Amino acid sequence: MKTILKLVTVMSLFLTFSCQDDDATLESVAVPQNLTVSTDITTDGSGNVTFTATADHAITYRFIFPDGSSDVAPSGVYTKRFTKTGLNTYTVTVIAYGQAGVSTSQLIEVEVESDFSDLDAIELLTGYNPASGSPSTKTWYWAADVPNHLGVGPNNDDLSQNYFWAFFSFTDPFALNFDAASCAYDDEFIFSTTNGENLNYLYDNNGATFFNRSYASVAGGTSPDDQCYEFDTTSGGTQTVTLGPSESVVAPERKRGTVMTFNDGGFMGYYIGTTRYEILSITENRMVTRAIQGNDDFLAWYQIFTSTKPVQSTGPVAEEDEFPTLLWSDEFDTNGAPSSANWTYDIGVGQAGWGNNEVQYYTDRPENVIVEDGMLKITAKREEFNGQPFTSARIKSEGLQEFTFGRVEVRAKLPTGVGTWPAIWMLGADYQTNAWPAAGEIDIMEHVGREQNTVFSTLHFPENFGANGVSESTTVPTASTEFHVYATEWTETQIRFYVDDELYHIFQNDASKPFDKDFFMILNVAMGGNFGGDVDPGFQQSSMEVDYVRVYQRD
């Protein structure tokens, strides 16, 4: 790969703000100045460009790219991989944030000429270690234990709904495990490389493959429905796979930009008449692909794969059998401030809006957090306060109630309004010495007002964090009009997520991940930010109400 990066124009933008005459804190806030950005272009064929930003009085930096991707880098150093072939011009925005959210930005117009390569994808697919240089083989499976591991949607860029369920999908774990598709979860997708540059593939279907009904004749079948048929995938031996750039219309921020093309008719598990699979995302343990049905350009199929073979659960474990002991709880039955035995507060704006560009100021005022009528109420309000346009609250059990493993239950009713971002979550108690994401984060429930009927559960750790966290969602049509119990069961081997005792997300835990030590609880309502998005101009205030928090453990 040849990559050429040329600095064309630089422009600095300064964010101005006003403050009350008697607000000495804001008057003393220094706007970041002397923002400079340098670049380091690799020549190893990876296509990586490292941006290094420095500015006086800056506490963090954000890099925004024209493909819709962006990220925060407190150190000011960020590496971007450009994959589009040919000579292309991009405008990169670099923002330096200071205290109270003041910022300076610089627009850099760059020209990048490159040939496509994705050596990182080969390493992730095969487990190849460049340091050893030894041949490597890695086996992938259907991610049968997570919802929406197979879904279909239109072949366009309308992603107003998550692409996995634009039409329909198999929403439950192991949902394909009915007679017609009983063969699917025995499939093994084996990728290998000898030198980290070539990519080979063997699909071992144990003698049968799940076919789309349009292609039943390929296997000698006649069924009008999707069906498993006997089909030989291994007699031809290992196939080669070539990687190329994506040309699909899927929104750039939702894809990696790499397409796998299998030779000799190769495919991945569900026969839809194609040999081309676009990698939307890939980590060491999770891969999401998109493929267009061979005889219907309108249909895009999505699959999730994992490198850890799922084991079918027998369903939610009864609380009295596994977690019978109440470790601690807060029933919120004493009016006033939240119990000081259980809760303390985060105050202010943190760094860069708590690392997410949020636009609220957290307080401990009763206007934002109070216990009354047997409920904890956290209220986000539109009001100018210490330089921010909104106020809210974030309470935490840090240093007061910390625990390892157990069942956590929170009965809550969520706020309304586009731009609201309520969350019920846990953070590793060692985060001050073991910086995020190394400390680990377990999001029991997240909700954003622009997706009113959807709640999310996500895990963040060094291999998967930020927008690449391991996340699933489920539909809760009455999330803001009725109370629901949001729960997680956290053990040495699994972290399971429920809404009203309905299991919808299973995460395989092990000693290599940071989920084997003390965590503490956090309850908050953020406004805007990377996930919350733009706030409705008509929003005034809304509350998350919490009936109780309960933590159970084994005897």
Q: Count of helical segments?
A: 5
> Considering DSSP H and I runs of 4 or more, what fraction of the residues is helical?
under 10%
Strand content: over 45%
What's the N-to-C terminus distance? 59 Å
**Shape by Cα distribution:** globular
Summarize the biggest pleated sheet: 10 strands, mixed
Give the low-confidence spans. 1-27, 159-172, 315-320
The mean pLDDT is 84
Number of strands: 39
What's the Cα radius of gyration?
A: 25 Å
Class from secondary-structure proportions = mainly beta
Write structural notes for this entry.
This protein has 555 residues and is mostly beta strands. Helices cover 5% and strands 45% of the residues. It contains 5 helices and 39 strands. The strands form 6 sheets. Strands 22, 24, 25, 26, 27, 30, 35, 36, 37 and 39 form a 10-stranded mixed β-sheet that branches. An 8-stranded antiparallel beta barrel has the order 9-12-13-16-17-19-20-21. Strands 23, 28, 29, 31, 32, 33, 34 and 38 form an 8-stranded antiparallel β-sheet that branches. The protein is globular, with a radius of gyration of 25 Å.
List keywords for this structure.
5% helix, disordered N terminus, 555 residues, globular, mainly beta
